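lol forgot to send this yesterday, sorry. struct tokens for the thing we talked abt
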């Protein structure tokens, strides 16, 4: 995972949404691989919500 994302650069915090935000094991793995703090958002499916909002705006 780390090797495939080195092009992004370094960061201190990763924010996860969806299924990853619900699984402590996945969050802990992400934190260990990237050496970064992992945060969840108040709205667990915020990526899907954002997509729905964008689609509704495009459709009028």
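and heres what i got for the seq, position by position
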């Amino acid at each position: 995972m780390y090797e495939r994302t080195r092009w992004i650069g370094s960061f201190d915090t990763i924010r996860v949404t969806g299924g990853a935000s619900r699984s402590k094991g996945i969050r802990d793995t992400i934190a260990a691989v990237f050496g970064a703090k992992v945060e969840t958002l108040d709205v667990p499916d915020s990526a899907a919500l954002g997509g729905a909002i964008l689609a509704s705006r495009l459709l009028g």
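The helical segments are 19-22, 24-34, 46-59. anyway ping me if u want another try
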